[in-house]
Structures
1.
Amino acid sequence: MSAIAPGFRSGYVAIVGRPNVGKSTLLNRLVGAKISIVSPRPQTTRHRVRGILTTEDAQLVFVDTPGFQTLHGGALNRALNRSVVRTLEDVDVALVVVEALRFNAGDRQVMELLKRDRPAILAINKVDLVKDKGLLLPFIQQAAESYPFAEIVPISAEKGAGLEDLLATIRRHLPEGPPLYDPGEMTDASERFLASELLREKLFRLLGEELPYATTVVVEEFKDEGDLKRIHAVIYVEKDSQKAIVIGRKGEKLKEIASQARLDMERLFGTKVFLDVWVKVRRGWSDDERMLKSLGFDV
Ligand code: GDP
Ligand code: MG
């Protein structure tokens, strides 16, 4: 082991916030790679994904959480919420993300989950959308009154604004200690998991309103063959009618989904990818605890 620079800090940072505030965008931006899927629809992140950022003087291990869900009471959502609470018990700093000028009951619910015995830093995201910057200061004051945040930092995850400041702020609240992961690593998620996330993202981007919530992806086979990866994935849906939509006329939709996912995989893995995707019906998967467990959720 090489010597660790004096003053080096490291720790776990949970990114929490109601759906759609920009948590995944922020994580990807900070870590510099597409490791958490982003979509304009809420609740596309279902698993905890770690992004690792190693700088000269710190290592931040980010934990992306699923958006705290209150809309539905199914087994899937119960599992999602439990996962947020568990994550918060386990980190050094909670990074709470809200949207600038949009603070609602969902945000308040997230704050109720925070542990008062450790620092919470508030990132006010999407400041690029605020036309009248004069409205930001009162919003910051209002946020400061809603919870004893250690610090408040305005950012734009999408434009990359305020992120240096955010990193320095988080670092100040981490304990001194050596890196927790190999500094060359960006994530501890497996390539197999990343492949399923990239495919799932395409479902969110390319299918209509409700359908993506009724689908899930399982990677059945992931084989390294030199500079080729052979990946076999199954998209599970709830009903035959949904299967027809995912496949599309003459298979066009599925072809588009698979080819976009393949391109993202090739970019991320830096190899050729042979991707084979099937669509299968499994009734009630999203309210079936056994199925969820087999997919790796905490239920
Ligand atoms: P999550 O559900 O909290 O993980 O949110 P996502 O990262 O999936 O982002 C939700 C939506 O907000 C996406 O359409 C993003 O492109 C968008 N978004 C995220 N950050 C910003 C930002 O700083 N500015 C703007 N204008 N949009 C953003
Ligand atoms: Mg997300």
Note: Strands lie at 9-16, 49-54, 58-64, 93-99, 120-125, 151-154, 216-225, 228-237, 272-281.
2.
Amino acid sequence: MTRRTWYCIHLLLPTQLQDLLIGQLVPLGFEGFEQLPDSIDGYVRAKRWDRATARRFRNVLERFQREFPSAPVRSTLRRVREENWNKKWEAQAGIVRVTKQILIKPSWQTLPARDRGKIVLHIDPKMSFGTGHHETTQLSLQMLEETMFRGATVLDFGTGTGVLAIAAARLGAKHVDAVDVDEWSVVNARENILRNRVQRTVRIKRGSVAVVPRRRYDIVVANVDAPTLERLLPGLAKRIRARGTVILSGLLVTDLDRIRRHASRAGLQVGEIVRKNEWIAILFWVQ
Ligand code: SAH
């Protein structure tokens, strides 16, 4: 078996900026990354790490630092020997560390020791959307985590794999209603709800606004496309209690103005906007 020498470069970097920097490190010859909350380990073959590459690396970091001055980027380098990195990365594939607290794991993976104690969402994707790899799901989870409080009532509109509904239940919701128009999603979400043992808290129905139970929720989360959100916002806004919150995701940066106008007409006021790459999620307050 060949044993290659690698460099492991440890970078301190806020989670939300990691993907941006990784995109710039791949062209330098980095072959694998391990993303941790607020740091990354990047792996590059020692043979590849010549003076020119090291200089380019420093330039990338400097440029990045100028763009994001509030996020100090610090790196340390160590030499490692390893037979088969691929195996190690494969073994991690499918696990998504979304926030410091929340992790998404498919059933064929075992939980790494360092993640014990976190909120683990067991999600097996089938034909539905919501594995946790997509920015829009991650942004929704991040905002849901910020907004959730024990005993809240939640509507997950467009549940896909059920990931947001399950997260709400695990974060302390008293009751969660989840709907999706897609039959496969409803089947898949149901399986995931059982797998996460939240069937007492989460109710799922197939359909759109018309099947949403007639009640008012503390929190409505909808990770759906912009045209659908614009169309359904007036109906959804009626299902939120006074001083409740709505989290809309599935939006591109370029959708912001339009959706803000629609929301304002429906009596919703922008509270917070979070962004990852070209995607945004917006938290609204009911006026
Ligand atoms: N909530 C998951 C999935 C988002 S994908 C996540 O955050 O990852 C969007 C989902 O919304 C899809 O499963 C799609 O079937 C559903 N959807 C689209 N239009 C809908 C509508 N009008 N009513 C209910 N669900 C809808």
Note: Residues 128-130, 137, 140, 157-160, 163-164, 179-182, 185, 208, 223-224, 228 surround S-adenosyl-L-homocysteine (CB under 6 Å).
